[in-house]
Amino acid sequence: MPGHMQAAVAAYPSWGCGYNTTEVRPLWGISQDILNVEEETIRSMKDILSEVMDLFPGRFIHIGGDEVPRYQWENSLRIQERMAELGAGDEAE
Q1: Which residues, other chains included, contact 82 with Cβ-Cβ below 8 Å and sequence gap of 6+?
Q2: Distance between CA atoms of 79 and 83, rounded to whole angstroms?
Q3: Contact between 73 and 79 (Cβ < 8 Å)
Q4: 0.85 cut: is pTM over it?
């Protein structure tokens, strides 16, 4: 998260960054489709992680954060506005 989410964005387009509707990726590799930073999307991810933590009650769950192409965030006016709302200085934050 927020990368490696093309299948999730295909199933739930509102979680994406507002680009073209995507399909489930049939190839290995890193796609450009990443999650947006809207409160609804963040809340959905928290809900999913809560369910995963109930299923796998270990101390740690790796959610990624690496391998995130930031093209969609860099080129989305809404994402840039939301970053400002959150006080994020750049896409890495």
Answers
A1: 36, 37, 38
A2: 6
A3: yes
A4: no
Dump pLDDT digits (tens) for 25-59.
888 888 888 999 999 999 999 999 999 999 998 88
Phi then psi dihedrals of residue 22, to 5 deg:
-110, 165
Tell me the domain boundaries of the chain.
6-86
Tokens of 51: 């369910």
Amino acid at site 13: P
Taken as a whole, the chain contains a residue count of 93
Distance, in Å, from the CA atom of 93 to the CA atom of 29, rounded to the nearest integer, reads: 24
Separation CA 37–CA 2 (nearest Å): 9
Is the CB of residue 24 less than 8 Å from the CB of residue 16?
A: no
